[in-house]
User: Fold this.
Amino acid sequence: MSRWVALLDEVPDGAWASAEFAGGHLVVWDEQVEGALRADPRAFDASGAEAWVSWVRPPDDVSILFDDGSVQRARQLVLAGPPPLACTTLVRDGSHFAGALSAFAAESDLRDDPFARIWPARQGLAGPGLIGRPLPPTGPVLERYAGAPWPVDRFGSS
Amino acid sequence: MKLPDLELRDHGGNLRRLSDLVGGDPTVLQTYRGPWCPKEQRYFRRLLALQDEAEVAYTRMLSLSVDPPEVAAAFRAGLGARWTFLCDPERTALEQLGLRETTDTTHDPYVPVVFVVRPDLTVHSRYDGYWYWGRPSPDELVRDLRELSRELRSDWEAPTP
Assistant:
């Protein structure tokens, strides 16, 4: 099972779930859609409650490897700190970091998003019907399993 | 030997099942007395060095004690550990595993043991650390994890033309 996510102005037909966020809509699909980014499916729940979300994406024309030291450090900090409600990195291909979505219980937690140290984040309250409450990763694994978006933690699961 | 599929709170208070935590990877499961023990403080420094390799080696780590989540979370944060700490303040898993340290009637803790565990929870190797030198060195753990990874990874011999 996989999920693909994008931040859009409007919710298109065919989406699996969506929620208002930061003046737009976070939209999730259960199939690959052009322009959307692959994410850990456990980060989403179509019956989930509202949550404070930090959405980090690279600036236009910027691309860094998923194994860049900044991305590795952000993943380490996620594992070391109090876990977010949900967290998924975003991937477009097998080698590049395309951003991250992290969800928190309190607005004040947004400032602690490790991925927002890499690039500025769009942050705000995401409405109900989108964000899941997965259990935190076991740790300390940072590697992706066959290119799946971290923290997917098994081969062949996404 | 196969470990029971324990169900315990983690350092964040989440109810966790051992088989889910282990997933499909080799796992180092360590029981420890508590943060008050100087032997544990020293041994955790070895494990912290191992975590820097485990994070890129598809290898999981777990620590288990009788501490409640609040104590385990503080100890974990102070160490800088990035793996899950399991909490057994009721000592139910301690009884299941038969790992009560009977000589310490003050803390009633786990006897220190390090297991290297397969995804099906069978034990690949066990080190009894009541006496400090019984605990595995990093080299011994790497040897065990190499053997277990070779056993688990069908493509251990890298595909070549």
Helices of chain A lie at 69-80.
